[in-house]
Write a sequence for this structure.
């Protein structure tokens, strides 16, 4: 039996999708993970963002992040689901080490946003 590890996956959806279509695609991948024994720890919709470089003549895309805990066997099949879905322009799934887990937890709590606000206030003074 395989033990569970922590993963983070980010995928970029085609910008021509409507908001509902984008949410349906994100729900599809979350549901796939849950149905196959993964535990979803966090989901974030980063919205429409400019791409670093054009993909298929498109310069923007809907970014979505899912943090989850799953068996390593699930990842290969999960990425096949990304490849089969024509709405997905790019995706990346990484296993998180203890430092990445700590960073991720701090980011979810908003610690880095507070630090940015404090830095801006200090520089303005």
């Amino acid at each position: 039996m395989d033990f569970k590890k922590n993963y983070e996956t980010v995928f970029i959806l085609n910008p021509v999708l409507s908001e509902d279509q984008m949410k349906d695609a994100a729900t599809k991948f979350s549901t796939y993970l849950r149905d196959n024994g993964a535990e979803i720890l966090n989901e974030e919709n980063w919205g429409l963002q400019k791409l670093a470089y054009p993909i298929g003549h498109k310069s923007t895309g809907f970014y979505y992040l899912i943090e989850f805990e799953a068996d390593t066997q699930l990842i290969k099949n999960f990425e096949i689901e990304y490849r089969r879905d024509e709405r997905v322009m790019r995706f990346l799934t990484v296993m998180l080490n203890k430092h990445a887990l700590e960073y991720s937890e701090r980011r979810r709590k908003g610690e880095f946003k507070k630090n940015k606000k404090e830095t801006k206030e200090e520089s303005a003074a």
Remarks:
- The longest helix spans residues 19-35.
- The mean pLDDT is 89.
